[in-house]
Amino acid sequence: MRTIPRPLVLLAETLVIVAGALLVFLMLLTVADVGGRAFADSSILGTVEISTLLMVAIAFLGLAAAEIHNRHVSVELVEAYLPPVVRLILAGVRTVLITLTGIVISWGLLGVLTSAFERGETTSGILRLATWPMKGILLVSFVLFFVVAIWNAINEFLDMKEGKVVEDDQLLAVQQAIDDADDITDTVVAHRTEEKK
Amino acid sequence: ACSDSGAEYTLHYATYSSPTSDQSKVVQRWAADIEEATNGEVEVIFHYSGSLIGAEDALQATLDGRVDIAQVGSIYAASDLSMYTVVDLPFKTKNPEVHMHSIMRLYEESETYREDFERQGVKLMYPLPLGSMMIGLSSPAATPEDLEGRSIRAGGLTSQVILARGANPVAMGANDIYESLERGIVQGYTSISLPNLPAFGLTRSTDYVVDPGIGVAGSSIVVINQDLYESMPEEYQQAIDEASANSLQYGTEEMDAAGAAACTELREAGTEFSAFEDADVEDWRGDLALDQDWVTEFEERGYDAQGVLDDFEQIIAEEEPLSDYSAPLNACMGGSQ
Amino acid sequence: MTGASVGALVAVLILFFVLLAIRLHVAFALMLAGLLGVVMLRSTDAAVSTGANAPFSTAADYSLIIIPLFIFMGVLAVKAGLAQAGFDVASRVLRKLPGGAALSSLAGSGMFAAVTGSSVATVATLAKVSTEAILKAGHSIKLAAGVVCAGGTLGVLIPPSIILVLYGIITEESIGRLLLAGIAPGILTILIYGMTIMGLVTRERRRTAGTANSLIERERAAAEEAKKIKMDGMGFAYLIVIFAVSIGTIYLGVATPTEAASFGATAALIILFIRSQKSKFLTGLKDSLVESIGLTSMTFLLMVGAGVFTYFLALSGASTALVDAVVSADVSPYLVLVLCLLMIIPLGMFLDGTSMILIAAPLLHPILTGYGFDAIWIGILIVKVAEMALITPPVGMNAFVYVGTVPQARLGETFRGIFPFIIADIVVVAILILVPDIVTFIPDLSGTT
Ligand code: NA
Ligand code: NA
């Protein structure tokens, strides 16, 4: 039932790949900086400044994809014991709250981006890098994340309304961990069979 | 612990400094003055060590009401208080008292300088003490040229100053200096002044302290949200103004106390003190075009930056003869001769 | 605290638990509750600014790059089959001991913990293989559940550990020292768990002795079987290499934790390259990156929520008031310590390990260090107990993940299987409290400050 529109998924996955590439870059940059300092008496100017800015993209570009894979933590403790009608209402409340949070945070992030751009805000190190591109990435990441989260919440509400109640002790986080475990086990098993060949 | 204070104004102060630093001690004395003058109707709640707001966010947070008062470092002010960053320029004065008075006089006398603050919706109350720039090293350096090839922790414009003599400026928090120095990740550090060494454990691990002749470069100030200040009754405003006026004096006193303690610890640890020769410093200064770069950068943004720089230098020239204050670094150096 | 602050605090706490109860994202629950408090104490403008500035100011911090790097390193290690390699070696070596299959699962968890930083990842990775081996040796699924869920907590204690890194960042304690301090308590935990396993198995052996279905016989048969396991010696060696690069360099003082994490992740990447078929390396790398970025964004969203929440707590004066109240109560510091640790357990009903540390550390750390307790020791105790909360009933993340991963396991028997290991954990915590040197001697020996 809960299928997320294809373009959204593609966009989210592209952002993850971008973040992944930045993570590898960050890793190699640190290695090169430390190596340079240890063996060649020359570090890469502004490594810390660049890394600090990159962290923002690496930290949040994956938000929407993580939401698509239900990776964000929530805990079902009380809900399992409530009658279906109440659970339906709660699903509605959740949808409203997520939408509300999404609007407030996105609005605020837009303000932060505009302000950084207009003020010509820069990092305070030697490179004086403009911060607005990262704040733009932040806005994009969060808006996309909230779109997916709201989409999921609405669909969950609709599912419940149609009587498809999610199984009691299946936490979202658990479902995600199970998927991970399957992935991981597959990799490990695949690896071993490869070796035996 | 849940005593309802009943103060009419509870002001939240955010600082990146630790509670025991000379800078926080100045603000504590300032707050005590105000509480006394207002019979406790204006009280200040301290949030130290960036626990409420990070250093980079301090000014914006004062503007949008996340805090009421904040310590703003010049190094973080380029985008918002551009003209205030004139105080970052090195080789201007070695006298911290002169530097602090200049920061205040510019606010009173330079329209361009003051406009930044007005646009940001904050009022400059007083500067906090910052000593003369020093370099701590693990092996001696007689001239600026001796810094070549060494990795040295630095921030702000000082990075460019040491870069001009072939050193590798390495950006890192003050908390990481000790460990990095011990491990040889850096061979020295700067962008810190002598009174602050004990707080970071550096009095025990610095074999050589050099006065590079850079002088006071950089500063921090205490600002209050302008609307809040103006909403207060006149008597409270007066209490704040009086305490702020006294705080420059508190600044030199607290810096001296911290500097003396640092100096004693360094001497006990056997640290050697030296200073670069005036001629070398002049050459070094001549190879840099930091003033020009600063003026160009901000003229591009539509400021009369040259005017502010001229005013700053003029004020320093006027203030120098009026002060016989000696920075803790100089005082400590003097003791070794 | 003023009357207004107390009112705001009560409202915020109620809203927080209500939001958790209706299954809102934990990050949102923290954020919304915190923002309500800021609206009450400051203004709506201040609240919007707080929420909007939190993501950038949370992430734009150089010391945090260690988090995605450690996550990446762990994911690469799994992809390269190093967890399985560790497990196989343990199965061969320990097969003849009573409870050999369970002991090797425990050892496997311990070895995997040495390259990964998360508790749930350790459970999810090893649940299937471990359970299969333990059941084959004739043990109950209860034992398998206990070993795997409890073994998962090692992932956080034995470095690398995302949670210890977070703890260091929140409390401004040395990350290097915290990571090193986890090693000995991790090994102690393995020893006590191992004794628990042997005790349980010995009892079961005695109970079934002489019957047709004797445990001794079945274990012997399984041990014969285990002899045939082809040991992946290189995989095991690589496991050691990664641990040496990422933790050994910190111990020797040649690298900062941040640098160590970069080198560890680079080593893991090279190892994955060596061990994968060249046609599959890029896919493996891509999968690892997707996995790592997902875990990273989850962690950071929680940090943003916790950041907003703790901003409110600081503003309200609740943190300071709590410290003052506890200190002025004039009770034994050790009683306060035990009470603080006990307070963490129920948090495990609502929160995962990361959120628990994000909320508990800023509150408890200043109270306990205020008594002059060693900061690193406090950190390890808090993290150890937070991990216990992940396996205590009625709600424990590790147990849920186990039940989800192993279809034949029921939640009730999983918790019954875990029970002896909770006793073991209590023993471990008691030993750590009585002998603090177990925590501090490794960081003290090393070049780290
Ligand atoms: Na670990
Ligand atoms: Na629990």
UniProtKB/TrEMBL annotation, chain A:
It holds the Pfam family DctQ. This is TRAP transporter small permease. It is a multi-pass membrane protein. It comes from Flaviflexus ciconiae. Residues 26-156 form the Tripartite ATP-independent periplasmic transporters DctQ component domain. Keywords: Cell inner membrane, Cell membrane, Membrane, Transmembrane, Transmembrane helix, Transport. The chain crosses the membrane at residues 7-32, 44-66, 96-117, 137-154. InterPro entries: DctQ, TRAP_DctQ. The keyword Manganese does not apply. GO terms for cellular component: plasma membrane. It is found in: Cell inner membrane. Belongs to the TRAP transporter small permease family.
TrEMBL record, chain C:
Its main location: membrane. It is a multi-pass membrane protein. It is found in: Cell inner membrane. Keywords: Cell inner membrane, Cell membrane, Membrane, Transmembrane, Transmembrane helix. InterPro entries: DctM, TRAP_DctM. The chain crosses the membrane at residues 12-41, 62-82, 102-126, 147-170, 176-201, 236-254, 289-314, 334-351, 418-442. The keyword Transmembrane helix applies. One of its GO terms (molecular function) is transmembrane transporter activity. Residues 13-437 form the TRAP C4-dicarboxylate transport system permease DctM subunit domain. GO terms for cellular component: plasma membrane. This is TRAP transporter large permease. The lineage of its organism: Bacteria, Bacillati, Actinomycetota, Actinomycetes, Actinomycetales.
